[in-house]
Amino acid sequence: MPDAALRLTRLLEQLMGTPIPVRLRAWDGSEAGPPGAPTLVVHNRRALRRLLFKPGELGLARAWVAGDLTVEGDLYRALGLLSGLIWERGEDARGLAAALRDPEVRAAVRGLVKLAGPPLPPAPPPEEVRRPGHLHTRRSDKRAISHHYDVGNDFYELVLGPSMVYSCAYWPAPEPAATLEQAQRDKLELVCRKLDLKPGRRLLDVGCGWGSMAIHAAREHGVSVVGVTLSQEQAAYARKRVADQGLTDKVEIRVQDYRDVTDGPYDAISSIGMAEHVGAARYLEYTRALYALLKPGGRLLNHQIGRRPQGDESSYHVDEFIDAYVFPDGELAPIGTTVTQLERAGFEVRDVESLREHYALTLRRWVANLEADWARAVRLTSPGRARVWKLYMAACALAFERNRIGVNQVLAVRSPESGDSGMPLRARTWGAPAVQR
C-alpha cells in the first residue's frame, strides 16, 4: 500500500519539531496532511535528495525550479503557511549542527536519507548561477545584469505589461480603480514631480531599463535625458521606443556603467530599482559618483528595496534563492543604512516615502500576468525560468505584505554652499498624481 506521503510527513515533523501545515502528495500517489490545505506535490525522490544535500531555502528552490516539487492550490497561501518553516525560522549552520546532536533529529535525517534513495547529489538546475563572493566590479556587475535582464524582451512584456516598468507601481485607493499601466504611469509622474523636472533641464536615469522613465520625463516634462543600462537587450528595446515616440532629440540611451558617466553636471538624477545591484562594498562609491554628477541644487530620487533591520542594523543581506536564480550579487540594506550613505556622500536627505504596500500589489499583478499566459512564458524562456519568476514574485509579494522587506523613495539634494536647497517649505507639495483614464 502506498505510504510515502505519511512517512515523509512524520519524518519532517520529527525533524522540524512542529506539524507540517500543508498537505503532501508523494511520488507513489499517497497523500497526508491537513485536508483542505494547499498540496505540496513531491514528484520524485530526487526532491528529497536536493533538500538533504542543501537543506533550507536553496534546496527547496532547486526542487521547485527543476519541477521536482510543485504546489496545487493557492501558491500565496502555501508560501504563507510554509514561511515559518523556511524564511522566518532563522536557523544558521551552527543551529543546524546543534540540532543534529538531538537523537530524534538524527533519526529523522537517517529516515529521510533512506526514503530518498541512493545518496547522489542532483546537479542544480541550469537556471542557477553561482559565483564566489560579491565583487561588484564592472565586469561582474555586467554579467549579473545580463543574467537577469537579457532573458528576452518578449518575456518581460508578458510579465510587466505595456508600461515595461520593472519597479513598484503607485496605486490609488481603492487599488482596483487603476490598471497596472495607469499605476505605473502615476509612479513615473510622482518621480518627475519630486525631481521638479522642467523644460530645458537635464536628467540622468541610472539603470534606465526599457526606457519608460526617460520617455515619460522627456515627453511630459520637456527635459533632456541620458539613460544608462548594462543590458544590451534593454538598450536596444529602449532606443526603438524612443525613436517610435519621436524623442531621439531628447533622449539618449547608453550601454554604460554609472561609474563611467562623466558628462555632468545634471539637474536631476533618477535611480529606480537599480541601487539593489550596487552592493555594500560599492555603495558609498555609488552615492559619491551621483553626487559628483549633480549640479549644486540638483536632486536625486533613489527608489530602492530595503530589508528590515536584524541584529547589526547596518549590515546588508543576500537571499540564497534570489542570489542564485534572480539577482546575482544583489544585496539589501535597511533604509537607515541607505540614508546614512547618501549623507556621507554629501547629500541632504529631504524626504523618505515608503511604498511597501504598493510593491505587494504590483507583484500580484505581475504574477497574474505570468499565470494568464503561462504556456507562452515557458516557450519564451524555459520551464525552469518561468518557475523561477513565479516563485520569486509570489514570495516577494508576501514578504512586502508581511513587512519583511520594504521599498522607499529617498529624495536627496546636493545643497549649494548658500544652503538654499530649492525645496518647498512644506513637504510633499508635489502631491499624488491623479489616475489617468
What does the model show?
The protein has helices spanning 4-16, 45-53, 57-65, 75-82, 93-99, 103-116, 138-149, 153-160, 180-194, 212-221, 232-244, 283-293, 320-325, 335-344, 356-372, 374-380, 383-401, and strands at residues 23-25, 31-32, 39-42, 69-72, 202-206, 224-229, 251-255, 266-272, 294-307, 348-354, 405-413. The protein is of the alpha/beta class. The protein has two domains: 4-116, no CATH class; 138-413, 3-Layer(aba) Sandwich (Rossmann fold). Helix 1 runs antiparallel to helix 6 (103-116). The longest helix has 19 residues, at 383-401. The model has no long low-confidence stretch (mean pLDDT 88). Residues 155-412 form the Polyketide synthase-like methyltransferase domain.
What does the secondary structure layout of this molecule look like, with pairings?
Elements: H1 4-16, E1 23-25, E2 31-32, E3 39-42, H2 45-53, H3 57-65, E4 69-72, H4 75-82, H5 93-99, H6 103-116, H7 138-149, H8 153-160, H9 180-194, E5 202-206, H10 212-221, E6 224-229, H11 232-244, E7 251-255, E8 266-272, H12 283-293, E9 294-307, H13 320-325, H14 335-344, E10 348-354, H15 356-372, H16 374-380, H17 383-401, E11 405-413
Parallel strand pairs: 1-3, 5-6, 5-8, 6-7, 8-9
Antiparallel strand pairs: 1-2, 3-4, 9-11, 10-11
